[in-house]
Amino acid sequence: MKLKVANGGAELSVSDTSFGAEYNEALVHQLVTAYMAAGRAGTKRQKSRAEVRGGGRKPHAQKGTGSARAGSIRSPIWVGGGRAFAARPRSFEQKVNRKMYRAGLRSMLAQLVRTDRLVVTQQLAVAEPRTKLLVDELKKLSVQSALIVIEAQDDKLMLAARNLPHVEVITVADVNPLALASYDKVLMTVGAVKMIEERLQ
């Protein structure tokens, strides 16, 4: 299949395997959910009634006080008591094997092409790390909210983009399901497209 290059006038040939796959909504949802879950720290911890300090003796007599029966001031129903089902540190990681991950990315890229949300440009660079220069470049491509994917680290471009709330610059190595799903447009350089195509073969 061929992708139109926005500012080059020509077309870029890419494989149907990487950019022409069918859209698998369930798989894409699983990938995005797993990616977000992997970012959770999972370090929350609370104390149970056995771990809260105090509460060793019975607070008052069993009968005759007019109050409910109580065996400890650290009961979960008392203020200052322990948690009934105390949280423990745990991992939220969900297993996604390599084959599923690549298939999901292929599905997302193909859907971007079908919905005209993938913009390919010959090159994207700024002479200085200034936001105005990048805004001007994006206007030429009719892009406002975009994920910009480049081949390698470009400090000038990343510094120019970091003050734009709806623009993010990442390298091919950092492409992930959440980023692809979070922006109206995905702007890729020709070099980035070729690198992604090789990775997803």
Strand content: 5-15%
Figure out the total of helices. 7
Helix content: 25-40%
Biggest sheet: strands, sense, closure? 4 strands, parallel
> Biggest sheet: strands side by side, in what order?
3-6-4-5
Class of secondary structure makeup: alpha/beta
Shape: elongated
Kindly identify the CATH topology of the domain at 2-17 and 94-199. Ribosomal Protein L4, Chain: A
The span between the termini is 15 Å
Give me the secondary-structure topology.
Blueprint: E1 2-4, E2 11-13, H1 16-19, H2 25-38, H3 98-114, E3 118-121, H4 131-140, E4 146-150, H5 155-161, E5 167-171, H6 177-182, E6 185-189, H7 190-199
Parallel strand pairs: 3-6, 4-5, 4-6
Antiparallel strand pairs: 1-2
Report on this model:
By secondary structure, the chain is of the alpha/beta class. It has a domain at 2-17 and 94-199: 3-Layer(aba) Sandwich (Ribosomal Protein L4, Chain: A), CATH 3.40.1370. It has helices at residues 16-19, 25-38, 98-114, 131-140, 155-161, 177-182, 190-199, and strands at residues 2-4, 11-13, 118-121, 146-150, 167-171, 185-189. The strands form 2 sheets. The chain has a 4-stranded parallel beta sheet. Strand 1 (2-4) and strand 2 (11-13) form a beta hairpin. Helix 2 crosses helix 3 and helix 4 packs across helix 5.
